[in-house]
Amino acid sequence: MLQAAIFDMGGVLVHFSHDRMCQQVGQLCGRSGDDLRRLLLDSGLQWEFERGLLSAEEFHDRIQQTVGRNIPFDALIDAASDIFELNRPIVPILDELRRRKLRLVLLSNTSIWHYQFICKRYDLLDRFDATILSYEVNAIKPEAEIYEAALVAIHCPPQNCFYTDDIPRYVEAGRKFGLDAEVFIDTNRLERQLRARGISFD
């Protein structure tokens, strides 16, 4: 019997675009989107930020040093974060799980900027009982530490917790910790996966 559910954020609860992020930050920095992809993503700088190894101020400084110009702090936050759109069909699914008293836990590789942006724009995350965020636990999926934090947060045996994520290797890592995990494809598939576990949607 399910007692809890873990949801990934980007690619499940919200749609996002790294290309859009690179284009927008590139425009702000006077560089191309391809340049920013190399400087932010390929270099690992973004992942250092999401792992919590860099504060927001340090991340800002590193970008300024990398592009060789001053970048307004708030403008950088907006350019880097205005890349999300709500996956609206998932909202009633979350509401049904809450109605059934399942504990909802967010498990996300994310930065403080992205998390705060989503919190401000949507009320979606208000539905969650606990959040396990990479920048807070200093680990990113599929590393063991972030799943161990999630196991503490679910307040039930792992086999009684459903976990969905759009990245197959993250799902596989969750299964190694005993979670009942499935790859997220779309909300129709998610409903079928939950129906198979006794959650009906009328």
Number of self-contained structural domains: 2
User: Helical content, roughly?
Assistant: 40-55%
Low-confidence stretches: none
N/C terminus separation: 19 Å
Would you tell me which CATH topology of the largest domain applies?
Rossmann fold
Please identify which CATH superfamily of the largest domain we are dealing with: HAD superfamily/HAD-like
- Quantity of strands, as a count: 7
SSE string? EEHHHHHEHEHEHHEHEH
Mean pLDDT across every amino acid position: 97
- In terms of DSSP E residues, the strand content is 5-15%
Class derived from helix and strand content:
alpha/beta
* Sheet of most strands: 5 strands, parallel
CATH class call of the largest domain? Alpha Beta
Shape verdict:
elongated
Tally of DSSP helical segments: 11
Provide key terms for this protein.
202 residues; alpha/beta; Rossmann fold; DNA polymerase, domain 1; 5-stranded parallel sheet; two-stranded antiparallel sheet; 11 helices; 50% helix; 14% strand; elongated
What does this protein look like?
It is a single chain. The protein is an alpha/beta fold and 202 residues long. The chain folds into 2 domains: 4-15 and 85-195, HAD superfamily/HAD-like (Rossmann fold); 18-81, DNA polymerase, domain 1 (Orthogonal Bundle), CATH 1.10.150. 50% of the residues lie in helices and 14% in strands. It is built from 11 helices and 7 strands. The protein has helices at residues 18-29, 33-42, 45-50, 56-67, 73-81, 91-99, 112-121, 134-137, 144-154, 168-176, 187-195, and strands at residues 4-7, 14-16, 84-86, 103-108, 130-133, 161-165, 180-183. The protein has a 5-stranded parallel beta sheet, sandwiched between helices. A two-stranded antiparallel ribbon has the order 2-3. β4, α7 (112-121) and β5 (130-133) form a beta-alpha-beta unit. The radius of gyration is 18 Å and the shape is elongated.
